[in-house]
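User: Fold both of these, please.

Assistant: Here is the first one.
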Amino acid sequence: MPLGKRMLHISLLSVFLTGACLIASAQECAVLSTGACTSPGARCTADTGGISRCRTVILPEEPPDCRCIGGAQPPQTRPYTLECVENYPAGVNDLPNSCDNTDRFDARISQFGGWQRLFYWKESNAWPQDWMETNLVSGGLDANWVDDPAELSVWSGHGTGSSNEPDGTWSLVFGITRNGTSFATSPNQVHLGEVGTDPFGGNGRNRFVIMDASCSAIEGELSQVWINGSGQGGIFMRLHQAMAFHDSPDDSDDRLENFAEDVDNGDTNKASWLDNGESCFLFWCWNSPLIMSFDSTSAGANTRHNSESLKNILARPSSFAGSFVWTFIDNGSC
């Protein structure tokens, strides 16, 4: 694939089919006559410095419902974004099962009804800027990919851990360097679910995030990384729930699929994540899954924590300031 291009797998796109939806202007190249995008169905966005990059649309076999990129979604349809990396540069261990994990999750959640995959970035197509706050970081693109229009975002790949945890920061680690970085870091760059008059532009929509990665939710730094950040909020803005790990989990190929299956069978997110995030053989267990829930009141946070799921979605918190509750299984920490 030519440098600067990445494939876009989008499940619903009607601009080629019914004409009922148009691609939002923010998603189009400012000038299409430059030759930056020449293949059929290509669209492009301005990268840092105004450089365009093409995303080729792969149309589904069946005519889809109406879906506008960056626009309103069909009633009862909630979009989700997946990103994964298996192959890392020399000196960083590869994760041969990361994308198998998200592949299987994608196949299982598509059976729910009510959820629809919107974007799925793999390997060099997964960029750190996709997770960076658009209204805070130069070149940040979260308002296009993982925070709006996505209501669920999933990362499967490496996360940072230091020799002196907790150190107050955490990063998603990507397989390529893009615009000078291979990391998207909280609390200074990653903020999800902000709406209305919340800090960082209020242009979020995310409700759930899964960080299937090492050291993504260490109890001693939840305040800095997830809750308070630099004073305006961490990863959690008005997210409903986050599912992550207190330690460095094994390179599983099916825990996300099993999580989705149990939710589909009636489990809460909490019960399913804790059950499927942990692995055991006889009396030996490993992996330390953690789930965190948020609401504007402590009673609301507890209700959400114990009853919400991807199939039983409660109302969005009325403020980005409020109460957090979390539960984790302790089989060790980073």
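And the second sequence with its predicted structure:
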Amino acid sequence: MNKTQEALKLALEAIEACLSAGTEAEDQDASDKLCDARAAIREALAEQPAQQEVDWEKLYRLEVKKKEALAAKYERDTGKTLTRIVPMAKQPARQQEPVCEWQPEDDEHMPGTWRSDCGVLWTFTVDGPKENDMRFCCGCGAKLREKNA
């Protein structure tokens, strides 16, 4: 029996002792067993080999191949065609992100107010959107761009 199996056995015994404890002596015995189980688990974990570096790209490619094989088997078995998900590397270039332009609103009663293309009015106490690190419109969620006034 290896150390991991021994630690699991001790943990199960400690749990059983906790569940059946009724007297103070049994409670103390259960507590001692829990301490022993924790120590055994720590010791078993310390002897585990260090985690190896994961090659995520390789795992991704394997996952894509596995899904493609499952899809091909399904199509052969059922005669139905599945919609294919194109892996990231093979996807066409992304379309340009939507942009919402903001321009200063001339308002003497509310200085620092800006109006967006989507109709949002926003007032800054200092400077404008760029200086306040706003990158997206709070009204429509599109990428924010300041219009030249």
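Residues 99-146 form one domain.
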